[in-house]
Write a structure and sequence with these properties.
Length: 242
């Protein structure tokens, strides 16, 4: 498993379920600091246009709190535009925060996810949905336990993490003692597939004390993620959690 020092199992985690956690991959420092900054600037510009106004509180029973989000179709060019994204060097001089640069970065990201899946004998993603940008504000924000909607999304969810670290907690739906935390540093990418995607809920704890990794509280600062998912229904591009 990649980035395994960023994963912490609860003491009561049943050992027979441990192999399932390998269906979560984390690549720390996937983005160079320059590319990270380009993406963070580009994401904030999109949110300014597409998610105007204050952060949303969510309702009392809502899954998510203190957030803005947008689906950015301008970053969803057909993959045929890039003949071999794995050959695109992530050369800093090459990238700025323009849509075209962001497209190249995201095509490289998607190609890397597919290369990871192929190397694990898992079917690759044929059709990525438009990237989804989620901004959680500085403090008093987070996402409650959920599974991304199974009728809209397929087997693969991948994210790029920007600006500040987040703790993501996974809990097996049928075995509540099976809990593990991952620390997602800015600049990392992560991939959820298989059982981790379908059989575990994931959350970013809202309570400041719960937002901890291996006993250490991780301060919640503003944090943006860019997520790509494989789509099931071509007509379904909107985002749902359940
Ligand atoms: C979500 C989600 C994770 C992240 O938006 O459904 O789980 O990394 N986000 O922001
Ligand atoms: Mn989710």
């Amino acid at each position: 498993m990649l980035g395994s020092n960023l994963i912490h199992f609860a003491p009561a985690f049943p050992s027979h379920l441990r192999p399932l956690a390998s269906q979560l991959a984390i690549v720390p420092a996937f983005l160079s600091p320059h590319v990270h900054d380009c993406l963070a600037t580009a994401a904030q510009l999109k949110l300014k246009r597409l998610a105007r106004g204050p952060y949303l509180e969510g309702h009392f029973d809502a899954v998510i709190k203190g957030y803005k989000e947008a689906t950015v179709s301008a970053w969803a060019l057909p993959s045929s535009l890039s003949s071999d994204p794995l050959q695109d060097k992530m050369d800093d001089a090459y990238f700025d925060s323009s849509d075209q640069s962001v497209n190249r970065i995201l095509r490289h990201f998607e190609a890397t996810v597919n290369a990871f899946l192929a190397s694990h004998n898992t079917p690759t993603v044929k059709r990525w949905l438009s990237p989804h940008v989620l901004d959680l504000r500085d403090g008093n924000s987070g996402i409650g336990a959920h599974v991304d909607h199974k009728s809209a999304f397929g087997d693969v969810i991948a994210g790029l993490c920007l600006i500040s670290p987040a703790v993501m907690r996974f809990r097996h739906i049928e075995e509540p003692a099976a809990v593990f935390d991952v620390l997602l540093p800015p600049g990392c990418m992560y991939i959820q597939t298989g059982s981790v995607r379908h059989m575990f809920t994931h959350e970013i704890p809202i309570s400041p004390l719960e937002h901890s990794f291996n006993g250490k509280v991780i301060e919640r600062k503003q944090r943006i993620s860019i997520m790509v998912r494989d789509g099931l229904d071509p007509a379904q591009a909107s985002f749902k959690r359940s």
